[in-house]
Design a protein that fits this description.
Layout: E1 5-8, H1 17-36, H2 40-54, H3 67-73, H4 77-97, H5 106-116, E2 122-129, H6 130-140, E3 148-152, H7 170-177, E4 187-191, H8 201-209, H9 216-219, E5 222-226, H10 229-239, E6 242-246, H11 254-263, H12 266-272, E7 287-289
Parallel strand pairs: 1-2, 1-5, 2-3, 3-4, 5-6, 6-7
Helix pairs in contact: 1-4
Amino acid sequence: MHVKLIVTDIDNTVFDWVTYYVRSFQVLLKEVESITGIPYVQLASESREVFTRHGSIEYPFLIQELPSVDAYYADDFDRMLMEAVDRGRKVFLKNAESMLVPYRGVRETLEEIRRRFPEVPIVALTDAPRYVAMWKLNKLGLLPYFSSVYGLADPRIPTCERNGRVKVDPEILLKHLQQSNFGFKGRIRILPDEYEKPGTRGLKTVLMDHSLDEDPADRGSVIWVGDNLRKDVGLGQRLGVRTAWAKYGVLSDPELYRLLHEFSPLANVHKNASFADGALDAPQPNHNLEEFSDLLKFLR
């Protein structure tokens, strides 16, 4: 196909989000359990409630928002930040180091697209908070290949209801307040929460920003890549763009699915992990990708 714009999801499309996040979050909760003695199962249950309240499973200030952790430390915030929060954050990041890697062929494919089609923008569209999305792309070494990043609003800073104190270490707070762009020179768009997929308004905003929204022929020159048949492929079809299904991003490990259920709201399980959906009514893509590099077969 003649292509004018490539738009791609991030999680489970350019890297294995489920394995990275579930395994890293698991060690985080185990670390907090070892420090406080609060059972893992209780911490996981409370995490589900916090994620539900904040509308994101990647809410970065989770530990200090857990009721049992708050009760354990009472008003000794400095100790809580030094022990549970800091150590939990560090074990998460250490575990993530080995897992934050692109799927095979992603970097090489993006390089080839840039070389062969330098005029074609490559856009990242994600339901993750903008800062979290860019942090992941930067860690993956993929951020420079994108011309734009579209994500949801960054998380709210937690404060204590009793005295109004900010419950974040000053150094970490400064990083979030600075709204780091990680040296990115492209366009950054923060979308309202109601633009989250499978709604069409996020992708429609991308099309409008690139003047490809009005003419059906223009929409047909856009290729949208995602791992979820219903959420990604379905919305692409509703907008008349060509869709490429990242089949390799489908969750196949039942243990990861079980662990995700322990701490994730049910809606987030289906939002953040796609499954081999054999239902006859599942939207069918224009192109199936066995690996990301297959995308090159459909571009000219």
